[in-house]
Amino acid sequence: QALSGRRPWVKTPEARAAGHTPARAHAVDMASIVAAAALLDVVTAQQRGASAEEQPSMPIQECTLEKGCQPEPANVVMDMNWRWLHNKDGSNNCQLDGKWDPSLCSNDEQCMRNCALEGVNAQGYSQAYKAETVANNGLKLTFPKAPRVYMTESSGDRYKMFKLLNREFAFDVDVSTLPCGMNAALYFVEMPADGDMGGANTVGAKYGAGYCDAQCPHMRVIGDKANLNNWKTHLAKNPDGKWIEVGPEGELGNCCAEMDLFEANTQAAQFTAHPCLKPGRAHCVGDEQCGNKDKNITGWCDKDGCGMNAYRSGVKDFWGNGPNFTVDTSRPLTVITQFITTDGTDTGDLREIRQKYVQDGKVIHFPETANLPNNSDMSLNDDLCQVQADTYKDSDGFRKLGGIQAMGAALGRGMVLTMSIWDDNFGRMLWLDAEKDKIDANPHDLGVSRGPCKFYYGADKDMKDYLQTDGDVQVTFSNVRVGEIGSTGVSKATPERKFDILPSGVATGREPAGPRAWCVVAALGAMATAGLMVLRHWSMAAEDAETRELLVVA
Questions:
Q1: Among residues 258, 484, 546, 549, which one is catalytic?
Q2: Is residue 46 within 8 Å of 35, Cβ to Cβ?
Q3: Of the candidates 437, 432, 349, 337, which has an alpha carbon nearest to the alpha carbon of residue 380?
Q4: Alpha carbon distance 261, 270 (integer Å)
Q5: Where are the alpha helices (H) located in 414-459, listed in sequence order?
Q6: Core vs surface per residue 364-396: b (16+ CB within 10 A) or e
Q7: What is the model's pTM?
Q8: Which residues contact 18 (CB under 8 A, 6 or more apart)?
Q9: Catalytic: 168?
Q10: Which of 168-172, 465-469, 495-499 has the lowest mean pLDDT?
Q11: Are 299 and 256 in contact (CB under 8 A)?
Q12: Ramachandran assignment for 409, one of left (phi > 0), alpha (psi -120 to 50 degrees), beta (any other)
C-alpha cells in the first residue's frame, strides 16, 4: 500500500485482494462484503453495482498565518481492489483465487462491459471493513479488514488534490497497538483526480479507482481496461534469499510519484520521497519501465526512495514504546511535515523536507544523524540523500530520477492523500523496523538496522498470533491540517531548542541562537515598540512556528 520499495513490488496488497495469497490479512472477505451489501440502498448504474456508495466524512482544516485554521469538508473512499467485482447481472465473481472468469473476461473490453463494482454504505465501512470515523475529524483503521482509503472532495466524485510546496501538513496519530511487522501509513500519490474516469471506466474516484504509486503496482484494472494481458505468476526473491512464485498479475503497472509522510509502528518510523521520471501517472510495461529490484533495474520510479529513519541513522532512543524514548509511541502524537522551497514561494523549487513532532505540548525535531559524515542535517534534501546512499550503499535511483526537485514538481502538480494499515507476509516489513532486511546482511554495518525487530518476525502467522494474544491492531489518523509554514498550530507547543538565524533568513535547529539571532530579536522588539506591526511577516524568513513564538515573547 504505502510501499517504500524495501520489498518487491510484485507482492502488493492488490495481489492479496485479487486472491493471490492466503486470504487473511487483506484478501477480499466475500462473506463480509455480501453482508455489507445487504445493508445498502439499491440504485441502478452500469458497471456500478446495485449498492450505493456512502463515503465516510473526514473533514480537514485549511490554515493561514493571518486567519488561523478553518474547517473544510472532505470524505474518504476505499480502494476499488477491496470491493466486490462481479457480473453486473448477477453475483458471479469476475475474479476469484487469482483467476479471471473467461466467460466474463475473455478480453479487457468484455471484462469492463460485464463486470460491476459494488458500493459500500456507512455501516458497511465501519462494520464490514473496519474503517470507522472517530471524533468528527478522524478515521480509525483496524487490521486486518481495513482497506486502503483516499481522501475525496465533499462531493465524493473527485479526489482532493493537495499542492504542498511552501506548505506544511500536520495530523494526529495513534500507533500504540502496532507491533513489529505492522505499518500504519499516511502518504501522497500523484494519481488522477477523477480516478481515471472515462471510457469504459464509469466508477472513477467515487469508487476508489485509479491508484498508482512509485512501486508501479499491477492493479487488476488500469485506466479503463482490465489488466488481463500476459496474466501470469513469476518469481521474486524474498528476504531469506529464496525465490518464491508470486502473482499472478497483468503486464501493466501504474506508476506515479509517491511521498510517504508516515510509515510507522511502535518500534520504528520513516518518511520517504519517491520521485518518478514521468509527470503524473504513467502505465508501464516490462522491467525497463516498471523496474525490477531483483535485477537492479530502476525503471521509471524510485522504488527505494530517499527516506529518514532515526533508528537507521544511529539514534536508537528516539522512537519507541515507553517514556524512555524521545517520542513515546504508547501515546498519541502530532506529525508536522514542512516542504521548504528555495525562494519561499509556492512555485519555487523544493529544497528540503523537514519533519517534527509534538507530544505533551513539546516540539520534537527529527534528530541529527549519528552515523553519517559531518553529523548530517536533519532534513531530507539532495545532499543528505547522496551521503546516505554512499554510506549505506543504497541504490542511486533518487538522484537518477531527479531527486528532491522532481519530488517537488509532483507536489506542485497536486497529490492525493492516502491512508492504510497493513502487514507483508513476503517481506515482513523488515525494511521499516528490523535488525536487517536480508538474510546475508550484517546488522553491525552502517544503515543495515532500521529498528529493533527480529529478522524472522512479521509473517502473517505472527500477526495472527499477535491478534489472538494482544487484541486489536489499529491506527487512528485525525485532526488533519494543511497551510502556510507555521500556520497549523505548532506555535502553541513549547519549543524544544533555541534557533539560529542563518544569513539566508532560514531558521535552523542545529545550534543555539547566537548574537546574530538576538540582534534580530532586539531589532524586531524595537520595531514593535515603535508601533510597527510587522511580526506576522516574519514567517517569510522563519520556517518554524516556534521561532516566531520566541521572537514574539522576546
A1: 258
A2: no
A3: 337
A4: 8
A5: 430-433
A6: bbbbbbeebeeebbbbbbbebbbbbbebeebbe
A7: 0.84
A8: 81, 95, 98, 220, 249
A9: no
A10: 495-499
A11: no
A12: alpha
Question: Could you give the 3-state DSSP secondary structure of residue 521?
Answer: helix
User: Which of 45, 58, 30 is CA-nearest to residue 129?
Assistant: 30
522-527 own/partner pairs: CB under 8 Å, 24+ apart: 522/554, 524/551, 524/554, 525/554
Tens digit of pLDDT for each residue in 513-527? 333 344 444 444 444
Give yes or no for a contact between 85 and 505, defined as CB atoms under 8 angstroms apart.
Answer: no
Q: Is the separation of the CB atoms in 392 and 446 below 8 Å? A: yes
Q: Does pLDDT of 397 surpass 80?
A: yes
Closest residue by Cα to residue 488 from 189, 90, 149, 67: 67
102-150 pLDDT, tens digit per residue, is 999 999 999 999 999 999 999 999 999 999 999 889 999 999 999 999 9
378: left (phi over 0), alpha (psi -120 to 50) or beta: alpha
Q: Are 360 and 302 in contact (CB under 8 A)?
A: no
Residue of 14, 168, 263, 543 marked catalytic: 263
Which pLDDT tens digit goes with each residue over 279-323?
A: 999 999 999 999 999 999 999 999 999 999 999 999 999 999 999
Torsion-angle region of 76 (φ positive above 0: left; ψ -120 to 50: alpha; else: beta): beta
Q: In angstroms, rounded to a whole number, what is the distance separating the alpha carbons of residues 1 and 333?
A: 23
With 0-12 / 13-18 / 19 or more C-beta atoms within 10 angstroms meaning exposed / middle / buried, residue 186 is buried
pLDDT, average across residues 375-390 = 87
How far is it, in rounded angstroms, from Cα 353 to Cα 407? 10
In terms of Cβ atoms closer than 10 Å to its own Cβ (0-12, 13-18, 19+), residue 323 is: exposed
Q: In the chain, what is the straight-line distance between the N-terminal and C-terminal CA atoms, in Å?
A: 46
Contact predicate 315/29, CB 8 Å = no
Is 258 an active-site residue? yes
Mean per-residue pLDDT over the chain, rounded: 84
CB 165 within 8 A of CB 188: no
| Other CB atoms within 10 A of residue 73 CB | 12
The length of the chain is 554
